[in-house]
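Methods: example folding runs. The two proteins below were folded one after another, and each record is reproduced exactly as written to the output file, sequence line first and structure-token line second.
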Amino acid sequence: MSAGTPPLSGPPKPQAKALNCPKCGAAIVLRSFGQAETVVCASCHCILDAKDPNLAILQQFEIKTSDVRPLIPLGTRGKLRGTDYEVIGFERRSTQVDGITYCWHEYVLFNPYKGICYLTEYNGHWNDISICKVLPTVDHNMFGGSSLTANYLGESYKHFQTADAGTDFVLGEFPWQVRVGEKAAVTDYVHPPRVLSSEKLDKEVIWSIGEYMYGREIWEAFKLPGVPPEAMGVYENQPSPVATNVAGMWAAFAAFAVLLLALIAGFDMRAKKEPVLHQTFHWERAKVANETSFVTDVFELKGRPSTVEVKTWAPVSNEWIYLNYALINQDTGQAWDFGREVSYYSGYDSDGSWSEGSRNDSVVIPSVPSGHYYFRIEPEVDPAVPAIAYSVEVTRDVPVFGFYGIAFLALLAPAIITSFRAYTFERSRWSESDHPPMQLSSSSGDDE
């Protein structure tokens, strides 16, 4: 370098190299320079040796379908996670499971300074893929078969599936010796939103790490027209839309539940629970005249307006008694009218013994002002009952917990709904794996 030559601030910006296919003469552009091992002629579908100055033909394949075309055209440039990339290669791969063929697409991206990375797409689900910088560790299954977990950079991944993946179609440049028809054993481990994959071809094993991306992110990154294909189903490392909220929801529920219990305890201790009337009454059909109602002794309710609880007990057995109550303020004439039934039935049938009803009944009248009160009671009794004794107990200022029960359910419902949504999402995810939920359930049932 001469003294008058200014120093370079960095490596020179590479330019694409134009060549011609040795078979059909079509123009071939090499964008990745020394990175490419093979390049595919788009015209005659010859796989060429990119390292050979004469582009020696390595393989030629036939297209079985005209529907194979990349969603991101070769040569498209975009900014992915802050780095400029150009799409230089595309391949379709497939695997067969239970006689069903599943296909996905892989894109090779190139940056002259960052090198190579990849994008994969399956049914509208995308992943940003790069080669692992360090070798993951695998916990081997003591019973043989696939390992159940793998660890990469301190993060644990669960085994999702192992399958043989074949290459069906290739286009553009690849940093390895690509071949159509070539098969590799692929094993995926997931820790959403990441997927850790090993690909074994012959004796070589390559590990890669991928992170889930949404189609709209890809379209924005590469400025693609239209809208991305809609994602179908739940993908193996697709992040759950609710999983991150489940723990927070239950933590919030626990905090509010503790507060609710504290309020319940406080109101319960504050309540007077003051007995104001306890009487037993006798009813005989032979003594019932035209006037069947009667009034109780007068009792006093003191202090602030409060709840009044009315308890009724009757020794009924396959019988009923109905009481028409009226709580009347002796000073103002204000009345609270209500009716209560006490009934109890039991017996035996083909399923065994049964019972329904109760010999006890309770009702709470809210916000009754202080004053002098009495009850007017009008009993109606089962026609089969000649006589019956029943008791009435009245208590002032009792705590009512029904509102707190509603509040508890209102707090519990969002946590349950969120957990259920997270559960169904994960169930859908793992139903496509080598460890589907039904299989796990059957296995656990067989062990018992």
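Second run, written to the same file directly after the first:
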Amino acid sequence: MTIAIIKTKAEQQLAAAFERVAASLPGASWVPAMRKAAMGAFVGAGLPHRRIEAWKYTDLRAQLKEAYAPATGKGATLDEKALAAALGPNLAKLPCNRLVFVDGVFVADSSGPTPDLGTDFHFLSIADTLGDPDFDWMTHAFEQTGETKNDPLLALNAAFVTDGVTIRIVEGATLAHPVHLIFLSSSAAPAASNTRNLIRIEKGAHATILESHIAVSGLARQNNSVTALHVCAGAKVQHLKLVAEGAEATHLGTWTADIEADATYNAFQMTESVALARHQLFVTFKGEGAAFNFNAAVLGRGKSHIDTTMVIDHAVPKCTSRELLKCVLDGEARGVFQGRVIVRPGAQKSDGKQMAKALLLSSNAEFDSKPELEIYADDVVCGHGSTVAEIDEDEVFYLCARGIPKRDARALLIEAFAAEAIDAIAHDGIRQALQARLNAWLAAGV
């Protein structure tokens, strides 16, 4: 018996788009074959759906009704006023090493200043290095193995990737300024972009890296972003991400990280009211004594659907992982947290804890939490927890009784709830900028 696989409209559009644009995508040598294989893998599997356990709460096959044409990004220019408005005044004025991408393409003329360039860090555009024989090592960055094997978002990204950046933080260096990767959507019509970043923090180096995914208009858009990090022995990195691409945007984001011995990877994500977001993190401990700390602030309004799903692989002994998600949901917004911690055989003295907390501002909001522990060692400390609550009206009354208007009282309580995640940001300027964005989000709708 032959079973027909019915492809959705979006899946058909993605396949047709690849046939149309494949020849114009950057890369020579091994790259066209890699793209074709990645697209073949995606076509064979299709968009992920609720029957796949990791996608139980985010049925992309049902939710992605249409796939937009890839943004060309050709001749992209930057409107500095529009960029500043999208970032907000604090982030726009942040002293940093600035690298700007407009509709998936690096815009060298609009990047900079980069005060640490050439001494403490080096970068190259992905589009300029794909297929270059001097950068054959990049083939490994597009391979899917282990927990990422056959991941549909990574396959789609590999097939359509237009640009991104490779960054190397020099051994022993401490960057004086953050590296700020700005991904701006500015197309005049709904469009899709695919970018990939490869970041190596060398032995003993310290750095702060911020990704801002923003838009200059509220147009519908579909962005698929991948960042792969390698944190070498004794290195320390703060990696942050802001997603504020508009209420009609779909953001599919994946982070992968390999952490070597005695290294520390501190991660933070903040998402503001996009239509659909799926944040994936695949973190693997490669050396003993390493640590991973993750904090997230999810701000959902309207019909936002924001999913944070991660796999933390304690593959070696004596490593520590901590995850805290704070989710504020209003209207018919839905938040999802799936945290899977794996402790491999022999990974003794592993210490892993995760906590997901949601504050529901509406009776129509929903939060789904699915923490998982897979433990194959006997000398470990692992745990998880999850809470869902509404605003305590007694606390609102208490503040109102002291002369604070009810709207302001509610905003203060919500701010205090979300601030626990934001307070974990070590960089003062970025922490204050994201706190300001939180306050602006509250002022717009509480």
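Comment on the second run: The mean pLDDT is 94.
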